[in-house]
Design brief:
Layout (H helix, E strand, L loop, with lengths): L1 E7 L4 E7 L7 H4 L53 H7 L32 H4 L15 E3 L1 E5 L4 H10 L5 E4 L1 H6 L1 H9 L3 E4 L12 H19 L5 E2 L8 H9 L3 E2 L20 H12 L9 E2 L7 H16 L5 E3 L1 H4 L38 H13 L2 E7 L2
Parallel strand pairs: 3-9, 3-10, 4-5, 5-6, 7-8
Antiparallel strand pairs: 1-2, 1-11
Helix pairs in contact: 4-10, 7-8, 9-10
Subcellular location: Cell membrane; Secreted, Cell wall
Keywords: Carbohydrate metabolism, Cell membrane, Cell wall, Cell wall biogenesis/degradation, Chitin degradation, Cobalt, Glycoprotein, GPI-anchor, Hydrolase, Lipoprotein, Membrane, Metal-binding, Polysaccharide degradation, Secreted, Signal
EC number: 3.5.1.41
């Protein structure tokens, strides 16, 4: 158990946060149907958290087998483009309007990045934000709260925490997880969270052919619709791996590309592999809080709810700090953008509160300290944090 006592002299308050360290369970022992690949500390790249493939049994087949009526492609495998359903979806895209760039090698950047055409706008390697990319919330002090890779067996613990604080989030759903845990997805939707697309098998999207990109997005869209009855119009590329080619196809399919703010990656995905720790993730988040007053806009943070360690650090570490931070407006992405229709069919269960884009909280109860102040409170409250003498006393009890 790690006990962190945070004392701010300006407010004469003490907040004690107990962060329960997750036991050293491997992903395989926690969830036999998925596995963790080797990690890298160089960033949220394709080698950090690889495909969610079965830990045992055959790998993805290279032999095409038609998907039976009412069924879905193999879990965690890139769908075959020969399938009649995919062939129908391909007609939705005019590939003559799609920029021509060769697929990447598993999303890995070339040694010489100067060889990448500037107009490719490859987020992974060029850190290029396209004009239509959603990478932040407009208003200063507004946090676009998002979680990737669910639903999982541990997602309900996250939902319990959010429900307790009447807090909503944007959940980027992997299609293979949607059909594996449909009841969990239904719960998230019924409780008013914004549901969005995170592909079928979690590949590096720039590594796929045009047709495979369509298959990944549309099968996920179908799995979500079949489960909750609405079609998301927001999507996030796994690893943030997107370029002009991928964006164009997603846009033609009616999707809005949502990434996260540069350098606002919690690194929680590295905890299961032992590269990051719960404490380092919390410290990273606390460091961001000091940047809020000087940022010209809000921010979107990368977090996950696939592994138990990721959920643990969120509900025991990051969220308690956030709930205790005055003026920090935590909202789903659609709320901070003042978009009341995050689905093709309209609002669904999502409720857009008045004053979107940072002047109001989406479903945050009055007992949540975040609702105590508006934008002015963000600046004043965070100025206090910056000016205060902040002492962190960390004691380890084994």
């Amino acid at each position: 158990m790690v006990h962190i006592s945070v004392i701010t002299t300006a407010t004469s308050t003490a907040v004690s946060i107990a962060v329960s360290l997750a036991s050293a369970l491997t992903l395989v022992s926690a969830h036999p149907n998925i596995h963790l690949a080797s990690s890298s500390s160089s960033g949220h790249g394709p080698h950090a958290l690889e495909k969610r493939a079965p830990a045992a049994g055959p790998s993805c087949s290279t032999t095409y087998t038609p998907v039976a009526a009412g069924q879905y492609p193999a879990i965690d495998c890139v769908p075959f483009i020969q399938d009649p359903q995919v062939q129908t979806w391909l007609k939705l895209v005019d590939f003559s309007k799609t920029p021509v760039f060769p697929p990447s090698q598993k999303g890995v950047c070339p040694t010489d990045k100067t060889t990448i055409p500037q107009d490719q706008c490859w987020w992974t390697c060029q850190k290029c934000d396209a004009p239509d990319d959603i990478t932040s919330c407009p208003a200063t002090g507004t946090w676009g709260l998002t979680f990737d890779d669910g639903p999982s067996p541990d997602s309900p613990r996250l939902y319990d925490n959010l429900l307790q604080h009447n807090q909503k989030a944007t959940l980027f759903i992997v299609g293979s997880r949607a059909i594996s845990f449909p009841a969990t997805l239904k719960r998230a939707y019924n409780e008013g969270h914004q549901i969005a697309i995170h592909t079928w098998s979690h590949p590096s999207m720039t590594s796929l052919t045009n047709e495979q990109i369509v298959a990944e997005l549309k099968w996920t869209e179908k799995a979500i619709f079949d489960t909750i009855g609405v079609t998301p119009i927001y999507w996030r590329p796994p690893f943030g791996d997107v370029d002009a080619r991928v964006r164009n196809i997603a846009t033609q399919l009616g999707l809005k590309t949502s990434i996260w703010t540069q350098d606002f990656d919690t690194n929680d995905w590295n905890i299961p592999a032992g590269v990051a720790t719960p404490q380092s993730v919390v410290d990273t988040f606390k460091g961001w809080l000091t940047k809020i007053p000087s940022m010209p806009h809000g921010f979107i943070v990368l977090e996950h709810d696939l592994f138990p360690e990721e959920v643990n650090v969120s509900i025991n570490g990051v969220l308690p700090v956030a709930y205790a931070t005055k003026g920090l407006l935590m909202q789903p992405i659609a709320q901070c953008l003042n978009d009341g229709k995050p689905y093709r069919e309209g609002a669904g269960t999502f409720k857009l509160l008045p004053g979107g884009g940072g002047s109001g909280l989406n479903g945050t109860s009055t007992d949540n300290k975040n609702s105590a102040t508006g934008l002015g409170g963000v600046l004043a409250g965070q100025a206090v944090l910056v000016a205060s003498a902040l002492t962190c006393l960390v004691s380890f009890a084994m």
